[in-house]
Amino acid sequence: MGKGATLTLYLNNEKVGEGRLEATVPARFGIDTFGIGEDSGSHVTHNYKAPNEFQGHIVEVNIELKS
Question: With CB atoms counted within 10 Å of each terminal CB, which end of the chain scores lower, N or C?
């Protein structure tokens, strides 16, 4: 099992959520990708069909990893 992490979600530079992930996956599986604006690999839920593309406009995505 990988290390845990604290996840923080920001929308328009405003913190909208935070939570603790107690364990992470220590390796990548298969060819699933980290998609921005669509679920191009395995979808998160069966409530929709992939790729379920976002219809808005994404200006910027920032991912900050801290150890």
Answer: C
Spell out the residues 6+ positions from residue 47 whose beta carbon is closer than 8 angstroms to its own: none
**Per-residue pLDDT tens digits for 55-67:** 899 888 887 777 6
Q: Name the one residue in this structure whose structure tokens are 């669509």.
A: 38
- Domain positions in the chain are 1-67
pTM reported for the whole predicted model: 0.47
Q: Strand locations in 1-67, DSSP E?
A: 5-11, 14-21
With a CB cutoff of 8 Å and minimum separation 6, the contacts of 60 are: none
Beta bridge mates, 9: 17
